[in-house]
Amino acid sequence: MSDYRMRPVGHVESPLTDRSTAPRQPDEGAPDAWLVFEDRFAPALQGLAPGQDMLLFTWLDRADRDTLAVHPRGDADRPLAGVFATRAPDRPNPIGLHDVHILAVAGTRVHVRNLEALDGTPILDLKPVLTRDR
Amino acid sequence: MSDYRMRPVGHVESPLTDRSTAPRQPDEGAPDAWLVFEDRFAPALQGLAPGQDMLLFTWLDRADRDTLAVHPRGDADRPLAGVFATRAPDRPNPIGLHDVHILAVAGTRVHVRNLEALDGTPILDLKPVLTRDR
Fold first, then answer.
1. pTM listed for this prediction
2. Interface test with B, best of A64, A84, A99 (most B CBs within 10 A)
3. Structural domains in chain A?
4. Residue range A41-68, pLDDT digits in tens
5. Taking every annotated instance into account, which residue ranges of this chain make up the domain TsaA-like (chains A, B) (predicted)?
6. What does the alpha-carbon distance between residue A75 and residue A69 come to, in Å, rounded to a whole number?
7. What string of H, E and C letters represents the secondary structure of B9-31?
8. Smallest CA–CA separation between A81 and chain B, in Å?
């Protein structure tokens, strides 16, 4: 009945290519990046504009889906925590959630500030930060 | 290479059963609900406790995945907007994002406040609201 397969709608274009050196959070030196949507999703982008704050959902395709507990931030001195109590990328459904600020929209390309996702990361969804009238 | 299939880790147990009458946002009368995780994910829950604010990711299995533009909040008087500029449930990858506050943890069942997801909705992920030390 339900189809649980994700259909990527685009990908991230970023100078970040190495997971081991990538910042863990956007305020830890993440660069600006482009969200590159497939042309057929152009109608879904209608209404996006510079200055908007959005939530970007990605698929962390390099994550290990069998990990259930981790040392937070990879620090072996910290006690093991369940992945649902952390933001670790390794988890059963490795959905990445990123706060992004739109700098520019050019056709189906959206330029955003400070994104910690790696180059080539598949994009699943984009939603506005919630306000009362949306 | 990449597996894009979601593996639900549990489901929502809620008095809400009808999409047409469900609140659209948690502050519009959403009831408390239980997050019921499968037993094998117990290690992933370690560290969860009452009082924590979390982000719950669900799969909106009753959504229409071919919808690319909508009238916001179903109001035909409002101009069409791309689904990525709205929180409409109908979208290519209908991931639900819900702010939840943990009221209680009982084994692999987690009681949360004000959840607008329907009974039986599959759970994909749970992450802490971001703070500096996580």
1. 0.90
2. A84
3. 10-17+26-128 (2.40.30.70)
4. 999 999 999 999 999 999 998 899 999 9
5. 6-134
6. 13
7. CEEEECCCCCHHHCCCCCCCCCC
8. 6
